[in-house]
UniProtKB/TrEMBL annotation:
Name of this chain's protein: UPF0262 family protein
Annotated source species: Rhizomicrobium electricum
Species classification: Bacteria, Pseudomonadati, Pseudomonadota, Alphaproteobacteria, Micropepsales
Annotated Pfam families: UPF0262
Length: 159
């Protein structure tokens, strides 16, 4: 299925409160998510005549804010979501990721694969939560939701 170029993100940035790095793995995941997201995504704010769009994602206390801009830098809309529905899956995701990266140098392949499957499952769960929270406000596809969830996790670490 061809994606309508009017309903896509062409720029995504994170408003990070801390410039501290959180390791190569986190930065690597962030870079991959951004690259993949901009290569292919579907993002359609309900009722919008079209973009393409730039997106600023920020985290303030217990709230995620998605500020949408048009290419001419005109503010197109803002969606604020409670972070509460994401907390458990983010916590579990970080724990499994930590175990996964610790296992790589010295654990057998089947252990690493099991941790990776758990990591992917939690990532998928986070994407489904995001799609549910966006429902009726912004249409996104599953791959876009997965990549946005990665960025939410990065913000959560740095927030």
């Amino acid at each position: 299925m061809a994606v309508d170029p009017q309903f896509r993100l062409v720029g995504v940035s994170l408003e990070e409160k801390s410039s501290e790095g959180h390791g190569r793995e986190v930065e690597h995941e962030r870079q991959i998510a951004l690259y993949d997201l901009l290569e292919s995504n579907f993002f359609r704010p309900i009722g919008s005549p079209g973009g393409p769009y730039n997106l600023l994602i920020s985290l303030d206390a217990n709230r995620l804010t998605f500020t949408i801009y048009l290419l001419n830098e005109e503010r197109h809309g803002t969606l604020m979501l409670s972070l509460t529905p994401f907390r458990k899956v983010i916590k579990d995701y970080f724990e499994v990721c930590d175990s996964y990266f610790k296992a790589i140098p010295n654990q057998p392949q089947n252990c690493i694969e099991a941790l990776d499957m758990g990591r992917r499952g939690l990532h998928d769960e986070g994407a489904h939560i995001l799609m549910e929270r966006f429902s009726g406000k912004i249409d996104i596809d599953f791959d876009t939701a997965r990549r946005l969830f990665t960025l939410i996790c990065v913000l959560h670490l740095k927030g």
